[in-house]
Structures are given as structure tokens and as C-alpha cells.
Design a protein that fits this description.
mainly alpha; homodimer
Amino acid sequence: MSEKSNARDLIIGTAARLFFSQGYHATGLNQIIKESNTPKGSLYHYFPQGKEELALECIQTTNAYVLQKFQETFQSYETTSEGIRQFIYETANEAEASGYTGFYPFSFWAAVETSCISQQLRAASQDVFAGWQEVIACHLIQDGIGEERARETAMLVVSLMEGALIISLTNQDKQPLLTAADYLSVVAKNAEQKQ
Amino acid sequence: MSEKSNARDLIIGTAARLFFSQGYHATGLNQIIKESNTPKGSLYHYFPQGKEELALECIQTTNAYVLQKFQETFQSYETTSEGIRQFIYETANEAEASGYTGFYPFSFWAAVETSCISQQLRAASQDVFAGWQEVIACHLIQDGIGEERARETAMLVVSLMEGALIISLTNQDKQPLLTAADYLSVVAKNAEQKQ
């Protein structure tokens, strides 16, 4: 990795961490520059439009990571229901391992904190959720589940995953995520059996 | 209502609206004073410890409103499953009526944005979620559902409700909430039938 692209990655990684741990509004560009140990010019070079452009990049980078993890998990398990359960179990374990503070699912600062103030960030967050639903729905359809039921089930999976994550982080306890994981695996299995 | 208690209510209502629509961090005390049209001394009189104390009061006020609404809804319907469905339907309609921006469920700015930075606000948010689960679990137990299953179902209800709210507000579309409502009513009904 060249030094330049390394600076860009450092900026994005630092920004994503700060946006989550202290919020989008509370994070200033100077703090990102300082904590990423990059030259001041780098941030303005890579993100000439500033904080919103950088936030957009954080959303897309995090999304690419999550999508890849979805795909890898689904490929490792025979059924979508088992893949969903494992994906959420791993999320729960990562959240616990980070002490519930170092973990930064994009939705928390992006969808929630910024969707009321930035149409661009709201649209990006909407695309992310739609992408996750699409991946899950496609795998359910491959399992032989009808399209309408597959899309509805996928929406429930994403909603429950996000909600259980809120409660787990608030309670600093992974049980809500584990309960959701077990439950969703039954939901997906039931959808399959009803075909 | 006396003029003094009116000022206090105006401050809380304004603060809750601003915390949600622009975030906890981005909201300053001066803006709350200005937009609530209250004398500067009032905020410092009622909330001598400042923003965190005011946020705590916003959480508790919103929570009292939500708990009351839960109770009223459950009293109006014969089964808990129907009550849950109606509660979320009403939430969806309120979110839509507000254009998805004037609506401020407490979890968004309290549990999410502040739980990483304030132990006091995190604990308050945790109590709120626990209170909601307790109300739902109690009603399920009254319906004859076993305690363990009732508590697990209540946790799923609160998680899915919160998650569907995130997706609905991000998408500016009430469908995720409606899907969750229909689904949770089936979940609660199934729990009941399995006793």
C-alpha cells in the first residue's frame, strides 16, 4: 500500500471510529487529522468537500465490509437461516470483545444521527439497508422461498438485527443479539418450510 | 399550569425535539433557551447541572409518555398480540404524519448517541428498555404465557420495534414498521398458543 493511499485509509478508519464513539456532529475535522496522524493537507486532498463527503466514504467502506462478511458467512453455511444466525452471533461476539464501545455499526451514526440533517447521507444509508435486504432475500430465494416472502423476511432480519444491536450496546450485554439470532434463524427456516 | 412549570415544560419539549432532530452533541443550551422562548435563568434554575441533567429529564418524560401509551393500548385490546400490533401501527402513522422528522423516539439520540459517552444516560436508557420489556412481558404473562417465553418475546418486540423504526425513518417509509407490527402480533399470538 502506498503512503498516500495509506493516509486515506487512516483518515477513513479514524473518522468512522470517531463518528460512532462520539457522534457525527461532535467530531471535527481537526480531531480526525490529529488522531489519524496524517498531514493536514491529506484530508482536504482526498475529501475536498469536507465532513459530509468523508462520512459518505465511511458509510460506503463499512457497507462493503458488511456485504463481504454477509457473502462469506452465507457461503460457509448450508442454509440461509444458519448463515443469519452465525452472522449475528459473530456480531454479538465482536461487540462484546470491543467492550461495546469500539464497535461501530454504520447505522448508529449514519442512519440515525444524520438522516434528519443530510439528504445525501440519508439516501446512502437507505441504499445500505436495501443492499443488505437484497443479499438476504436473494439467498432465501435460492433456498426456494417465494420472492414476496423472501423480501419480507429479509426486512425483518435487518430490522431486528439493528434493533437488537441498539439494545445490546445500550445494555452492554450481548443477550438481545443472541435472542434475535436464534429467533431469526427460526423465522428463516419457517419461511423455507412453508414453500 | 403556573408560568414557572410551563417554562420547565417548554424547555424539556424544545430540548427533546432538538436532541432528536439535530443530535445531542449539536444542541447547545443557548439554542434551547432561544427556541423555547423562556428566560435564560429558567434553564439554569431547573437544570443546574446543565445539558446532561436536561437530557436525563427528556428521557424520563418521553418514557413516561410511552409507558402510558403502552398501558392505554393494552387496555383497549383483548389480547397482547393485538395491542402490540396497534401500538406499532400508531407509531408508524405518527412517524408518517410528522414527515419522519418531527417524530422523536427517545432511543435515537439517547441510547445511541449518548450511551458511549455518558454512563448516566446509558443507564437511564437501559432502564427505559427494561421498563418497556417488563410491561409487555407482564401482559403476555397475564395472557397465560410462561415467564421465560414472555420475557424473551418481550425482548424481541422491543428490539424489532426499535430496528424497524430506524429503517422507517431512514427510508422515510412506514412499511418496515407495518411489517414488524404484523409479524410481532403473530409472534405474540404463537407464544400464547404454545402454552
